[in-house]
Design goal:
The chain has one domain (9-169). It has four helices and five strands, in the order H-E-E-H-H-E-E-E-H. With 186 residues, it is an alpha+beta fold.
Amino acid sequence: MPKKEKTNDLEVIRGIAQAAASAYDGALDDEGNPLEIGLKREEGNPLIDKRIMDGFKVKINGTTLIVTYHSDLLLKDVYANKKGSLEDELEQTMVDIVKFLKKQYRKITKNTLSLKEKGEVDAMVQTTSRVRVFVTASKMYEIQNLSGVEDAEVPSEDTLEVSFKKFLDQGGLGTKAKNDKRKAES
């Protein structure tokens, strides 16, 4: 089994960004076929069917990858249980998006992207009319490939230099100086 090359953190972040950037609406693969990500906009014929507005973006916060999905839905689809609940559908969409990101990352960098789930999908449904709603869902993943990046959620440590800490300990803020001869105000 060949050894895996150690990639630096900037290459990992750039690879994720490039993988996400290749998911625009109308993107084609190497054979000229439309990319299949797992989004609703890929269903049906784009020339004769009504277009569905949906897409995703990624953000990186420390060692956490945040995938955010946005879609335009009919209100009857939110309450219908034909495929399961809305949460299950959003969870499956997130699985499809992460699968696509890993596949594109491997294609771009020739390395594997290792992601670990950090919780479940957080969804917010907003009404725009009596017929239509917007759903915004996000899910967090821990990026296992990063080695030198600190997690933003971990509190920072006190790393003051000894000389600066000694200076601060001298204090004096709010106390009267020894050579101050003014009378105290009443």
